[in-house]
Amino acid sequence: MEIHKFWFQEEYRGKGLGSKLLAQAEIAAQEMGANKALLTTYSFQARTFYEERGYQMVGEIKDYPPGSSYYTMVKPFEAEEGCL
């Protein structure tokens, strides 16, 4: 699963909507056979949000854009019991 453009307007933030939508997308992706989720974000955006939901930073471009960093993050999905 690859996530692009996951964003909420300010008035909808902090209400749990992003967490719920992301969780549902992850469930749907796993049901379709995905074994991980991949996304990119910037240091001035949602890195902490994703880390709190199990995403790990696997790549960083420093000073892109100047004064910030660009991150690649991955969340492996656990295999169901009995699956290879």
TrEMBL record:
The keyword Zinc does not apply. GO terms for molecular function: acyltransferase activity, transferring groups other than amino-acyl groups. Residues 1-78 form the N-acetyltransferase domain. InterPro entries: Acyl_CoA_acyltransferase, GNAT_dom. Keywords: Transferase. Pfam families: Acetyltransf_1. This is Acetyltransferase (GNAT) family protein.
